[in-house]
Amino acid sequence: VQLVESGGGLVQAGSSLTLFCAASGLPFSATIMAWFRQAPRKEREFVAGISHTGAMTRYSDSVKGRFTISRDNAENTVYLQMNILEPEDTAVYYCAAAQREWPAARSISPTDFYDHWGQGTQVTVSS
To answer: d(Cα 5, Cα 118) in Å, to the nearest integer?
Structure first.
């Protein structure tokens, strides 16, 4: 299994950026996908997750209304559109995959929910 993130970079506050995660070696259309991030000296935190078909999404409170997760099952790719970026969004962003059913009640935010991880892409937002 490979998850390869791209699209990170250095931007100014208020800007937009789109991250990409290309997946291979797994049944992508049967896999929950998510984005996490980890800032220096902080724990890895959930950002957004999307169900197998894209019909359902979940977001952390800190990005709700600014970030949008989406997926293209024909291209085995998941996206994270990030708008109105803030310096607090600076982190390494990771793509994650979980080969399980979308939980009706259980949270999808714990890191141990996920089976596979990418290497990450750096996002730096300057003030």
So the answer is: 7
> What local confidence, expressed as pLDDT, does residue 104 receive?
83
Instruction: For 91-105, write each residue's pLDDT tens digit.
Output: 999 999 999 999 988
Residues 125 and 109: their CA atoms lie apart, in Å, by 24
Distances (CA, A) of 14 to 87, 88, 125: 9, 12, 9
Backbone angles phi, psi at 87, to 5 degrees: -55, -30
User: How does pLDDT run across 17-41, given as a tens digit for each residue?
Assistant: 999 999 999 999 999 999 999 999 9
19 beta partners: 80
Q: Which residues pair with 7 in a beta bridge?
A: none
The whole-number pLDDT of residue 106 equals 85
Residue 46 parent element (H or E)? strand 45-50
Instruction: State the CB neighbour count (10 A cutoff) for residue 61.
Output: 6
**Cβ(88)–Cβ(61) under 8 Å?**
no
